[in-house]
Amino acid sequence: MGKARIHPVVRITHWVNAVALTIMVGSGLRIFNAYPAFARKGETFCCYPWEGQPIPNALTFGGWLAGARNWHFAMMWVLVVNGLIYLGFIYLHGEWRDLVPKKSFFRDSLEMMKYYLFLRKRHPVQGKYNALQRGTYFVLPIVGAVAVLSGIAIWKPVQLALLTDLMGGYVWARYWHFLSMVALVALSAIHIFMVFAVDPYALRAITTGGYNPEKSPEARNARPFYNLFGRRKSKEPPEAPPPPVPPERPASPETPSAPPVAIPHPSGGEAPAFPGPAIAPPSEPASTVPDGAKQ
Known about the structure:
Blueprint: H1 8-33, H2 65-93, H3 105-116, H4 131-155, H5 161-166, H6 170-197, H7 202-207, H8 217-220
Helix pairs in contact: 1-2, 4-6
């Protein structure tokens, strides 16, 4: 069994955060409906055009104000403890290296946007996460911290007056708390949409840890709802295989050299044999004795 793509600690904290955040958002909206405005009575607020309009009850959780408060504060501590475990683990285990944006973040993000808008043919090289994912996963803990701090500021505005004042007062602390909730919901919604629209195989990674790199968005060249389950097979008939290459003929053997030839030596012996054609022995020297003296 290969190494899990996502560590068990990250997987567990991910799902705990998902449950805690869902309950916190629903109960928070129910608390907001008790007074669906940011300005005090008789005053106006610049930055919320729906003053006095409650959130639909179908989007709230807790049933009534006291019940919603109980759920909200209970899940707040779950979210805080779980978030600290997650942050501590990714720092000590080195997982933060996969989440912190690189120096080329803006350039890489632009290339991903061009790819999603069909202005680029091939999926950019991404590694474990692409630039947009890195940015989202890096910002989420920061937004979560703002939500927690602003929530504490409006929970204890007298005891924690310094924190409340740093956020601009009670009214603005409520507003930052509301905006951080909206940002968390928006980022989570985009995250869920991209999982189902681009990389549904990531669901296995976040539940069991397994993942097939051959089915990654980069390998499939996947955009939202495009090449979702792999590249489309071409309807054209397959090309004919190339003709077989004839085997090479063996090289012709070299012409054998002539056998060694023994050359007779004038003294009656034989000269050492050497390869090559036969050579005639040297002729005897002419006699210098006159013919009459031979008798």
